[in-house]
Amino acid sequence: MAQTTFAGPIRSLAGLINAGYNGVVSLTADTSITVAAHAGRPLLCNDADGVFTLPSIVTTEPADKGDPGQTCNFGAQFTFIVVTAATDMDIKTDGTDKFVGGIYTGVDDATGKTFISGSSNDVITQNGSTKGGLAGSIIRVTAIASAKYAVEGLILGSGTIVTPFADA
């Protein structure tokens, strides 16, 4: 089936199913994330030291808000799921866009802490221990405004945990 674009809300009385072979994307090398190839799909992180660069947030208001060719990407969501434990895995923006939100890091002794992004943070680094990134860690980012990605997550770590947020 070809790509179909709807200009209004979609209502389903029985649910929408995103399933099938192309329902997930495996990231096995450094990747420039795109809306067309990655938004709305689980992104399986299978590169322990991968660098996954989010697309620049485009705020251009189209003349025709129903135009399927518009470039505005507000609302685009990207969900990263760690499959291969991280050693130095980065989720980063273009440098102009920043993160707003928080990530909870849990450790194996039932303790944990929530880390809130700073206003200049544009990188999330997981290292498989103190900064999270063990298999099963999940981070979701959403383009919400000019230069702002909302971030939420539950990542798994060990040892004395520290913030995964940083500046490039």
What characteristic shape results from the CA principal axes? globular
Q: Can you give the mean pLDDT?
A: 93
- Order the strands across the largest sheet as they lie in space: 1-3-5-10-11-7-8
CATH architecture: Sandwich
| Count of helical regions | 1
**Beta-strand residue fraction:** 35-45%
Features:
Jelly Rolls, 168 residues, mainly beta
Structural notes for this entry:
This protein has one helix at residues 35-38; strands at residues 25-27, 31-32, 42-45, 51-53, 77-82, 89-92, 98-107, 112-116, 123-126, 138-145, 148-157, 165-166. By secondary structure, the protein is mostly beta strands. The protein has a single domain, classed as Sandwich (Jelly Rolls), CATH 2.60.120. The strands form two sheets. Strands 1-3-5-10-11-7-8 form a seven-stranded mixed β-sheet. Strand 7 and strand 8 (112-116) form a beta hairpin. The chain is globular. The protein starts with 24 loop residues before the first strand and ends with a strand. The mean pLDDT is 93.
